[in-house]
Amino acid sequence: MLLDLTVVIAYLALAVWGGRRFARGRTTLREYYLTDRRLPWWAVMGSIVATETSTVTVVSVPGFAFGGNLTFLQLALGYLVGRVLVAVVLLPAYFSRELLSAYQLLAERVGRAFGQCAAVVFLLTRNLADGLRLFATALVLAAMLATAADAIGLAGLSQATVVIVAILIIAAVTLAYTWLGGMAAVVWMDVVQLGVYLTGAFLAIAILLAGLPEGGWEAVSSAHAAGKLVIFDFAWDLARDYTFWSGVLGGAVFIASTHGTDQMFVQRYLCTRSLAEARLALITSGVLVFFQFAVFLGIGVLLWSFYAAGESPALVPITVDGTVQHDRVFPLFLMTQLPPGLRGLLLAAVVAAAMSTLSSSLNSSAASTVGDFYLAGRGRSEKDALRVSRWATVAWAMVQVGVAVAAIGVSQRVIDDVLAVQFFSGGLMLGVFLLSVLVARPTPGVGIFGLAVGLVTIAAVSLLTDLSWQWYVLVGSAATVGAGCSADRVRRMAGFGNSE
Fold it and tell me: In Å, what is the CA distance from 171 to each residue of 174, 273, 313, 367, 383?
């Protein structure tokens, strides 16, 4: 286990070194946050994929297939459709002006207060969701620390305490290289981390296939007979998760909201050399995301075959009240079935997936804090803005640590928790951006009214109905756009201003 720990520590050290390497020459906000728009499209594509592939994907998606089937792939189809919509409708608006934050576009078209309101929604929901991602990653590292507890001085500590230690380690390393190198360090480390965790995934598949006593083909046959290979569910049930309709339609609108309005992704497009390269990076990332979802779901099916559909005594350590915790099956396999050294490499791959998302989250949160609030309407020096940027990064890292610690003992299937948070807020964000495009010179009142109606609508739907959370983005965006357009029409009819 000490060998595994050494491998993981070596990878964490590499990440910090990468931050120092890319810290050189980052003396302006444009360089620190947008890399002076010099990144090639393929690096941005890899960064987009790595950013949306956190430990929630690496750990919870195999757990989804272990406990269910392959219907999660329907969401990935929707993700590809949504990317095309973003590339056609929203990307041109971002490249028509100089922006540091996506919400500066709203501030220009609707009003500063409205742009700041949207930025607050982004900052709160992004850091809540990524705090949950940090927690999911800590579960994996904590499993390794617990195994090596005697050797590293953690013997006798409770499981919750070990998880907290893991949270702090991951957060500290991610903060270090993000603080030092800015967006350049984030993107290029994302590319490295993409290669690391995909290599780890294929190694896991090879090891699982070699360890299946009945052989790979027989395992797939038994999984098929058990319904584990079902991809499409055409049931028209609005209360049901992961149907074709909620996956493709809901997933497309969800991606339109995240990849079209979320600062974490918009900031990447603005690092490319042109609109054409940004579109190429975005659409090709959808193809790769679909492929890797298929890979991680395949790992889950193989894990089901390996553990004989959850009947193995080896799963007892990750059961609660007799129920297997699906998110912990893959980490258990890594800790108990792999040889030393290789186990450390695969654990490093899981941590790499998390750090790619968390570093992007911290950098984009700091960019929004500086661009939407600190610099708004004020003359600030580059030196002061960069100093505030780094301290804002620290502050948001502390918020995510707090969320991760609060999630201990609460969250069961993390991927549902993360997606539910983002689906809840995504519709509101997409709605306000569409309002700024569809309505000529909308007033702040129109935007705020639309946002308020959208928020009340989606809150009522989530609390009072059984509607699947995968419809939340569509409902929220439709309510926001509909209310805003109606308010603008009433305003015009009453003679309160015009569209000129």
Answer: 5, 31, 34, 18, 26
Predicted TM-score (pTM) of this structure: 0.82
Domain assignment present for 429: no
The answer to whether residue 447 sits within a structural domain is no
- CA 181 from chain center: how many Å? 21
The rounded radius of gyration (Å) of the Cα atoms in the chain is: 23
> Which CATH number do you get for residue 249?
1.20.1730.10
Q: State pLDDT tens for residues 195-247.
A: 888 888 898 899 888 888 777 787 788 888 888 999 998 988 888 888 999 88
Domain total in the chain: 1
- Quote the tokens at residue 381: 């020096």
Buried-exposed string 92-131: b where 16+ CB fall within 10 A, e elsewhere: ebbbeeebbbbbbbbbebbbbebbbbbbebbbebbbbbbb
DSSP H helical ranges for 231-341: 244-245, 251-261, 263-269, 275-306, 329-337
Domain range for residue 45? Answer: 2-412
pLDDT in tens, 62-73: 988 988 899 999
